[in-house]
């Protein structure tokens, strides 16, 4: 599966990017890199920046919410109708997990697409096509700040990074693209100076109690019911864990976190089981 090239800072990008043609300015979301490819079998194959996973269950925990989102929302029929060979196409996007920005998670999709590769053509699709492709297959593309801005009218040194579409604050940065495949990124200073997330500083039991609250369990239960899913232990437990890893990614994975993930999973499991038992007993 095609790996995504590193995007240089605007200072290291080819000078022609901001000297000729027209630019698309896209919101840079502070998430984690996720790529996928539909197989002829109908299964979806996923990868992060460095690895490819033949089994979606092997994808690391912080990505599982995005894996579920893609698998449930991808319009496979629309994709098959659009291309001769579905395995020709690789899709790239952000799994929107917490790193430095606390987005409004209830509004922010678990996956936002930003690029599409065609193996047969050996090229990335232009930004206008990328937007249409993701819309056409049932997935949301990244937010576009500006379309077709004249490159000569764009001054990276004086450009003010706009507000994010996904929380009340500035975007993590801007990705600058043209139709020739050239790219650069311009980060907001608050992301550059924010540093890495702090480790969890409470016990696994206390953290689980903060996450698997009655309100959150009821919210996730309602989502399962809306989807026609049974509200039994396993599916609810998976949703609670996905939610936890999405909103605490970076902190849970921190070397300074004072407990093992198995301990945290066990505490979440106990709270989830108590909730399911309470529903069964009518309490």
Automatic annotation (TrEMBL):
Top-level taxonomic group: Archaea
SUPFAM superfamilies associated with the record: DNA ligase/mRNA capping enzyme, catalytic domain
Domain RNA ligase: 23-182
InterPro entries, per database record: RNA_ligase_dom_REL/Rnl2
Name recorded for this polypeptide: RNA ligase domain-containing protein
